[in-house]
Design brief:
The protein has 249 residues and is α/β, with parallel strands linked by helices. Helices cover 38% and strands 18% of the residues.
């Protein structure tokens, strides 16, 4: 892979982290509950991954499912998590706070960036539901954020390609945060993007469903989302990561 390309894999387990590393990923985004878009992981999971995997790890800090308009308590949780994961040896954090009007919450973001110190910082897909993506890009540059993970404000990055192109051109003109395409990224999508854009960073989960090892099964007793089986687990597919890396070579 060219040194200026980044293939980041989003994982929520040690097993997925190892599969991503074996497949050739350059970096991990660590979260919990990937099936609902990701929430903050536990420190113990982070420590296990750092102990068993040599890839750089950026940690998603999101206290709950849903929007990015946080209460004061939720914000204080995020801020404390920045401190905890920095102390634990994280390579970066993945954050985002909005105001009710859809603008970036600059006061809170400044506090989080300050708490992060020298860590790498990704503005996560709060960007995709902000009111003005160009203004938010400029604000992220002002904050010193180095990466913006975005689908181009659409359900997937292929649909959001027009905005992603505009943002990539803005990045080239201003030297601002790197645009990282996410949501619906596959090896084939990467090939299309490479033909049509200058985007050099891609974020994917490369997930597959793995059947549980449980032999005894009590069906019909959901622990959460009723539509999902309790006996299937999402895991990163090493082969998909390998194919994604080949698409960048």
């Amino acid at each position: 892979m060219k040194s200026d390309y980044i293939l980041e894999c989003c994982v929520d387990s040690v097993e997925s982290a190892l599969a991503a590393a074996a497949g050739g990923a350059d970096r991990l985004e660590l979260c919990a509950a990937l099936v609902i878009g990701g929430t903050s992981p536990g420190i113990a999971l982070f420590e296990q991954i750092k102990e068993n995997c040599s890839l750089p790890v950026r940690v998603l800090l999101r206290p709950r499912f849903g929007d990015f308009l946080y209460t004061e308590h939720e914000f204080q949780i995020i801020k404390r998590e920045v401190e905890l994961f920095a102390q634990a040896g994280a390579d970066g954090i993945v954050i985002g706070c909005l105001k009710a009007d859809g603008s970036l919450h600059m006061e809170r973001m400044r506090e989080l960036v300050s708490a992060a110190g020298d860590l790498g910082i990704t503005l996560h897909r709060a960007f995709d539901v902000c009111a003005d993506p160009v203004q938010t890009y400029e604000q992220a540059q002002e904050l010193g954020i180095d990466t913006i993970l975005t689908s181009g404000q659409e359900k997937d990055c292929l649909t959001g390609l027009p905005l992603l192109k505009r943002l990539s051109e803005l990045q080239k003109r201003t030297g601002g945060p790197q645009i990282m395409a996410g949501a619906g990224v596959t090896p084939e999508v990467i090939r299309k993007f490479r033909m049509q854009t200058d985007i050099k960073a891609y974020h994917l989960s490369a997930k597959k469903l793995v059947d549980s090892g449980m032999r005894y099964r009590r069906e019909g007793v959901p622990m959460g989302i009723a539509a999902m089986s309790e006996y299937q687990i999402f895991r990163t597919d090493q082969e998909i990561v390998e194919q994604a890396k080949l698409a960048l070579e």
